[in-house]
């Protein structure tokens, strides 16, 4: 069942020199979840933050941390991100030979596990593990950078995943990441998404704009 729309600001678009204050500002502005993009310069062509940064941010909010791992290999680092304070850990099926094992590892550490589908990755990649996961994340841009345009073809995939999730009868978040603005947010929610990642659209205009920016995404 589609849940209420939750907004997950991606701190990739925050002021990296003031990350603690930025996380406090989005918390005060009504964010539901904090989305942390972890990139290794290998799986994706950019490098961001390690577990130490996640740990340092943990004391700046009580919101859940939604950690999106764009790294390969992924398994060796999962425990460190969980220890640092991740509540949801998501990975790409292409990140390793045994994504089901990665999911089991996350679950064994008591956290929610998510599977991420790149724009060219089919829903089939999630079908065989749908009974084991808590979240599906649809990339509506190619991962690596903020500020890209929403890829409209992903709407069909979101709708297919909505049907797949509903057929399980379980509560599984359907999250969309990339190029989300008030217009694309509406389309993603209409297709069945219930969690929206937004970097540029939340952090533009500085902290005094964050509450209005988040509200605009709720539609
Ligand atoms: C891309 C990241 C996204 C990105 C979204 O690799 O996973 O979370 O920061 O940024 P916007 O909202 O600017 O497209
Ligand atoms: Zn992300």
Care to give the gist of this entry?
This protein is of the alpha/beta class and 219 residues long.
Notes on the structure:
There is one protein chain. By secondary structure, this protein is α/β, with parallel strands linked by helices. It has helices at 19-28, 51-58, 78-84, 99-108, 124-127, 154-168, 182-191, 200-203, 210-218, and strands at 6-9, 34-39, 65-70, 88-91, 112-117, 135-139, 173-177, 195-198. It has an 8-stranded parallel sheet. Helix 2 (51-58) runs parallel beside helix 3. The chain is globular, with a radius of gyration of 16 Å. Zinc ion (ZN) binds at residues 10, 35, 37, 68, 177, 197.
Termini, distance in Å?
A: 19 Å
Write the CATH architecture name. Answer: Alpha-Beta Barrel
Compressed to H and E, one letter per element, the order equals EHEHEHEHEHEHEHEHH
User: Main sheet: which strands, in order across?
Assistant: 1-8-7-6-5-4-3-2
Q: And the CATH topology?
A: TIM Barrel
| Main beta sheet strand tally, sense and closure | 8 strands, parallel
Task: Give the arrangement of secondary structure elements.
Elements: E1 6-9, H1 19-28, E2 34-39, H2 51-58, E3 65-70, H3 78-84, E4 88-91, H4 99-108, E5 112-117, H5 124-127, E6 135-139, H6 154-168, E7 173-177, H7 182-191, E8 195-198, H8 200-203, H9 210-218
Parallel strand pairs: 1-8, 2-3, 3-4, 4-5, 5-6, 6-7, 7-8
The structure holds D-xylitol-5-phosphate and zinc ion.
Jot down its keywords:
single chain, alpha/beta, TIM Barrel, 9 helices, 18% strand, binds D-xylitol-5-phosphate, binds zinc ion
């Amino acid at each position: 069942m589609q849940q209420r729309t939750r907004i997950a600001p991606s701190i990739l678009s925050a002021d990296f020199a003031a990350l603690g204050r930025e996380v406090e500002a989005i918390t005060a502005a009504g964010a539901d979840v904090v989305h942390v993009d972890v990139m290794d310069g290998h799986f994706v062509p950019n490098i961001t933050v390690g577990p130490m940064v996640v740990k340092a941010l943990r004391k700046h909010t009580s919101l859940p941390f939604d950690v999106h791992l764009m790294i390969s290999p992924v398994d060796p680092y999962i425990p460190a991100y969980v220890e640092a304070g991740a509540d949801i850990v998501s990975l790409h099926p292409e990140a390793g030979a045994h994504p089901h094992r990665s999911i089991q590892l996350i679950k064994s550490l008591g956290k929610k596990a998510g599977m991420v589908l790149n724009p060219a990755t089919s829903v089939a990649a999630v079908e065989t593990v749908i009974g084991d996961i808590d979240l599906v994340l649809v990339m509506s841009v190619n991962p690596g950078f903020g500020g890209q345009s929403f890829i409209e073809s992903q709407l069909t995939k979101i709708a297919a995943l909505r049907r797949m999730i509903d057929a399980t009868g379980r509560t599984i978040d359907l999250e969309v990441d990339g190029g989300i603005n008030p217009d694309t947010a509406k389309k993603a929610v209409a297709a069945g998404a219930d969690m929206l990642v937004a970097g540029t659209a939340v952090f533009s205009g500085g902290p005094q704009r964050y509450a209005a920016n988040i509200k605009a995404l709720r539609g």
